[in-house]
Amino acid sequence: MNDMEKSDTGIVAKKAANKGRSRPAELPEPSPVPEGKLENSNTVRARDRVAVTQGADRLRQFVKRKPKEKLTTLLHHVTVKSLRHAFYRLKRKAAPGVDGVTWAEYEVGLTARLADLHDRVHSGAYRAMPSRRVEIPKPDGSTRPLGIAALEDKIVQAAVAICILLPIYEEEFLDFSYGFRYKRKAHDALDALAYAIGRTKVNWIVDADIRSFFDMVDQGWLIRFLEHRIADKRVIRLIIKWLKAGVMEAGVLRDSPMGTPQGAVISPILANVYLHYALDLWYDKRWRVRVAWGETCLVRYADDFVVGFQRKHDAQRFLRDLGQRMAKFGLSLHPKKTRLLEFGRFAAVNRRSRGEGRPETFDFLGFTHYCRRTRRGWFGLGRKPVGKRMARKLKSLRQELRRRMHAPLHATAQWLGRVLGGWLNYYAVPTSFVFLRRFFTRLKREWMKIIRRRSQKDRMTWSKLETMVTWCWPALKIKHPWPDQRYVAMHAGATQGRSRMR
Question: Rounded to two decimals, what is the model's pTM?
Fold first, then answer.
């Protein structure tokens, strides 16, 4: 009674394709997803992120094993999963490009859209659209041209950057390059500069600024630099399409024979590649080894960089050679923002002996760097927020407070607390406490003036304001460690697990 019957085989589903044992002409149908087990978008995004990360890691390891070999097949890393991963990394409320498509509109039918985009990228039918030009006002009164790319261009650019360019060039870039890199923030560059000034023989500083860098990048040199490692012509053609797409300004299409579209997703990594070959390798492999007589150090964040020197004639020679090097690649130094100054532990004594004033200061990444003395009389590097930036921030807050004059005070206090919290997260570094306290005091005075203008019968007192500030504003305290501590902790791997004191 327990023998197998013919109908028993139906217990295990079999989906044999047609034409028997020969090669099937049709693939078996996939098993249906059980009811109640549908995957949500978060699960799909998590799996895509894992797949993209693993692919990027494999490419990074290959580049590390073979640093001189050109990479010939790279475009296969741009998959539908990587495009989806790139799409969800974009800002959802960003302004649309010339296509007028927003992030929310593109998400409708996303799977079909990305599949079509993937086919066009791999078949060569993909065409880059021109960037929409927007002028952003700068503090000095001029404007900065900003290019807003179309949404599909942003997706493909992000996928190429994440899956191809970043894994390759993270192994190529030198250690003193910090701008727009993985796990390297502005404070890491500031810590490296502070460590170099405090622990090495830095007596002179070259504060350099490249004039209109993103607008003056030579596209021919950029493609030649990329071809040093990338031999996949399909990837090179994609980058050329973005560079040559042009700019749409006031309804007029203009060609872009020079520069990279500032504001595009791909621009930061392309800018780093350009300066890696035009500046970093030249300084590290040639100038520092063959020309410099004393100690020297360089810290670069995107197109802003500071170079420290032990000897004055080295600094003067570097400044002259740097201008020639930049001119070779179509760049130039800003004459008013590029300068040579005496700075370091002996600057105050040397200037005093010559009858000059205090040592000069320089600005880097939003901070003014100055020479100070510790309580024991030793040299120390001081950092404070740039005065002009503090004045602009106070002005913008004053204007917004006037607009919110008749809003509930508690809501305004909470809004100010959120703004100041983000501001302190960047500027609350050691030696800046006095300047931050001064900023808070001025802001409270401005707010009190506006509150008292709401009505002639206003009864707001300083004690009430202080109580509201205590509850709603963040505590005024330093939020970053000393540069030496964080820099040593970041580079602790160089000790291979041993104490640095042994």
Answer: 0.85
